[in-house]
Amino acid sequence: MNAPLIDPFARAIRYLRVSVTDRCDFRCVYCMAENMTFLPKADLLTLEELDRMCSTFVGLGVEKLRITGGEPLVRRGIMTFFRAMSRHLETGALKELTVTTNGSQLARFADELAACGMRRINVSLDTLDPDKFAAITRWGRLPQVLEGIEAAKRAGLRVKINTVALKGFNEDELFRLVDWCAAEDHDLTFIEVMPMGDLGNEDRLDQYWSLKDLRARLAERFTLTDLAERSGGPARYVRLEESRQKVGFITPLTHNFCESCNRVRLTCTGELYMCLGQEDMADLRAPLPATDDPALLESAIRAAIARKPKGHDFDYSRQHVGGQMSRHMSHTGG
Ligand code: SAM
Ligand code: SF4
């Protein structure tokens, strides 16, 4: 293998998140506007180009690949790409291939994902109430997602539920969600809502439910033990002693996790974002070689990693949304 990717702050880059489409069959209110304009399909990296990109990163020491979007499972032919990536699992170069999905297509694809060597997936689910689910996703149907999650379980995939903590929306469902995950044996991670994109329909500060508060609420019913486990990302984990559940907290706004950041993000058009909270990116499409020689792409990747910033500038602390990003999460992939 070539020399691994090390950034200017001595962080080894081992984790690549790839958004394979900006499209989605849902319109979650905190993520997209209802009448989104999507990229022309011709602007997307082809599945072959995605393969070359990801394979080059794997050759440079990336061990974990998370496929996201938009909704990755609505991209046509995406299973071809997953099957192609599974070869890196077989050689051992890649330790984990995984996906973050809204679950709508899982009933169709769970078996195939498992057959590609996938072991764990993240499914986003903010509520167990069908009406609230329809309201928050605008276009989603809860039963379809629950069926998808069941299918994933049957296929042997371990499911982690990602729940965005939303004030006045799912505060009252905290224990219901926790109990459901315990009963179904799903891991659960709460995410603080981030100031991404101008969606024009709500005030991000109004929706902001700090995970510090959420954690305090959990502690009213459970004994929380902090776990040392770190993913190199913004998640921190606790064990709920009474139910022996693992619960994660992703707190990009109240907790600085940047010092151990091991990841970069590739968009569906070939832009590499070195930090979720900064505008700087490198265009990797131009140096994508027409031949199998990856030298040009490799040096573009190294030049980009050399620009990875120390951290992000999100800040809610002064009652304004500081460091707000104009990009949507569906662009960089959440
Ligand atoms: N469509 C897939 C899904 O929903 O899981 C993958 C892409 S989605 C952009 C990835 C994650 O980002 C989801 O868990 C979603 O809840 C989260 N997300 C989207 N917008 C967010 C925001 N403004 N703040 C925090 N999380 C957000
Ligand atoms: Fe789609 Fe995921 Fe964004 Fe919801 S959070 S609109 S499911 S990309």
The helix content is: 25-40%
> What general outline do the C-alpha atoms trace?
globular
Biggest beta sheet attributes: 12 strands, mixed
Examine the coordinates and then state which fold CATH places here, giving the name of the CATH topology of the domain at 15-159 and 260-332: TIM Barrel
Number of helices, counting only DSSP H or I runs of 4 residues or more: 10
Bound molecules: S-adenosylmethionine, iron/sulfur cluster
CATH class of the domain at 15-159 and 260-332: Alpha Beta
- Mean pLDDT across the residues is 89
Q: What is the count of β-strands? A: 12
Q: What is the beta-strand fraction?
A: 15-25%
Specify the CATH homologous superfamily of the domain at 15-159 and 260-332: Aldolase class I
Name the CATH architecture of the domain at 15-159 and 260-332.
Alpha-Beta Barrel
- Largest sheet, spatial ordering of strands: 7-8-9-6-5-4-3-2-1-10-11-12
Order of H and E elements: EHEHEHEHHEHEHHEEEEEEHH
Terminal Cα separation, in Å? 29 Å
* Low-confidence residue ranges: 316-323
Summing up helix and strand content along with how strands pair, one would put the structural category as alpha/beta
Q: Rg to the nearest angstrom?
A: 19 Å
